[in-house]
Task: structure prediction
Amino acid sequence: MDILNALVAFLNFVFIPAATYGAQLALGALGVTLIYGILRFSNFAHGDTMAFGTAITIIVTWGLQSLGISLGPLPTALLALPVGIAGTAAVVLLTDRTVYRFYRAQRAAPIILVMASVGVMFLMNGFTRLLIGVDEQRFADGARFVINVRDFREWSGLTEGLALKTTQALTLVVVVVVVWALFWFLNRTKSGKAMRAYSDNEDLALLSGVDPERVVRLTWIIAAALMTIAGVLYGLDKSFKAFNYFQILLPIFAAAIVGGLGNPLGAIAGGFVVAFSEVAITYPWLKIAGYLFPDWQPDGLLQLLSTEYKFAVSFVILIIVLLFKPTGLFSGKSV
Amino acid sequence: MSTNRQAESSNPWRAPILFAILAILFILEGSWRSAMFSGSWNTSLAILNMGLISAITALGVNMQWGYAGLFNVGVVGFLALGGLAPVLVSLPPVDGGWSSGGLRVLTALVVGLGTLGLAVTLWQRLRRGWVRGLAVTGALIAGFVLYRNIFDPAVIAIEANQSAQYGNLGGLGWPVLISWPVGGLFAAAAAWGVGKVALGLRSDYLAIATLGIGEIIVAVLKNEEWLARGVKNITSIPRPVPYEIALQQNPEFQTAAANWGFPLAEASGIWVKLCYMSLFLVVLLSIILLAELALKSPWGRMMRAIRDNETAAEAMGKDVTGRHLQVFVIGSAVIGIAGAMMITLDGLMAPTGYNPLRYTFLIWVMVIVGGSGNNWGAVLGAILIWFLWIKVEVWGPSLIGVLVTPLPEGGLKEHLLDSAAHMRFIAMGLVLLLVLRFSPRGLVPER
Result:
């Protein structure tokens, strides 16, 4: 019975939160990796673009709510999501037109593109603040729990409860669907194959008649969709605050690099590696240890690092992986 | 940029003219009261002082990026480490702080470092195979457990000591000016460690690695209360210049202020800021002098050769990674000095204030706008961008106020007026993008 309790506590406090967070990071890292693979630079504006897309979605959500439209148990934000994606796609295409295309045509060093993305980051940050302000916004509605603690306790007779929030379940489902759709697109459609060809060998792809500007446009649109979805899921799960999206840049980069930049499969793996290590290292294991070894009374909470160090964890993983595999676990690109 | 840095003929008057314009801006700010300027010398000098510190930070970044092409996005971390120095050097020691656990904390830190060293040695000495993996993992885990067993009780003891007022180790009680070079040393030591691990990485990877380092250093400062009280902040850091109150009570100063024709309170504020300004100018000019001398020496020519073509430099027998480490450490030391100066000027250590947008990315805007590779460019860019950063907060709302006058009264107009304060990010982004596009080598390009 105690092993079951420990298992439930583990699911509740470690596995489900980490899986949800990992899924959100994976979507973010997929966007970073796609941009790195096709446009060949690390996009520092990624976090702030996520915030921007989420802000559009939130505003549309508020509009829908004021009209009395809802999705029943599901959050209304899902209905607003397509508008958010379209708006973000329009904005990133505009930045590509006005900013990045110039440097691409010049064949400027990748670091110049990175620098330009810092400029875009400032702009996106400012626009997001103009649009929705700096305060914390909660926009999750609908049913709060799929499984709630009390029902689970009554059903199972365990002392430890299990909760599964709607947003967590939704995140996992949406991410599976999105990842499946992305891989189907990359592996089965002509445009997807063109993107992969362009990413693998630019010159060869150009020789075979791939239109580079089209590939770039597609990349931005897909990245915008991934960013907005990741941002909205993260916002639904935690809450929306523009600055948090800037901070999430580090774990997203860490995930993309741990998996291997430019490798979509790696981005997903990296997202989960980073999320699970963050949660496992900052979670106080005392409760679970208490179920497993009832006679053992340790002094502390059995927490390896305090929660504030969670960004540090992603970075340490990054360094360790890079020391042993300089291009990531799945052997990504290095331009 | 790194492939296209050949000097082109540039107007020798360009830098002096731009500096003159900058000076006029500060004079207007000090003397002309209007919608655009405050007309207060106190404000003008306050902006200038912070601008000078930003200029020193920008010089450090310029050494790393402009001379060596290293993309360091962890500026905020090195600034914060430098800021630790005034706290540890010039604050008076806390009664009972050291005796309650100081030595134990130091022992723990030595144990932690020793564990890392042991793991590295094991990794290098043992042969490839599962024995090596097991030994290294075992050493790391055992070391970590031992470290936490010494560290945690010591920290609890220190933080329990007079926790309302102190709860930290305190400082050495030395003059605050000594802490400036110490701040440089702190940052340099950290940079050496970071460089050893991360400098082998490609530019983008290095950027992200340093971004992480910056976050970690700030996280440590926020959490390790025994060190600098964390988010409880440290106030009343000693000053190298007189206090305004002391000046106002000094009869000599009272007559001097009357002669200048300034009210006493204003005059004392201006005097203190002028004192700071002279100190900062001495540091800034010495660093520029050293940097220019270094750049014009064979060492500087070698650095630029490495930056412009690493492969060729390596073929000539230059130790590229070694030189990169060297310039990374020197640049970070300069950033650390600026960090210590900033805390001295503020008189306050507040780790939550270390925001990477402001202390990393804004510094980068300064360097790019000013002219990477050129020390005077970096200084010009830093002071100019800092001036804009402060003034846009005033100009943005008035601009939006003018723009929204035709709009009807209501929610939208109010929302726009309320959020006008966020204009500064948009302005900075625009400045950076415009300069990158139309003058990629900056306002004062490298000669």
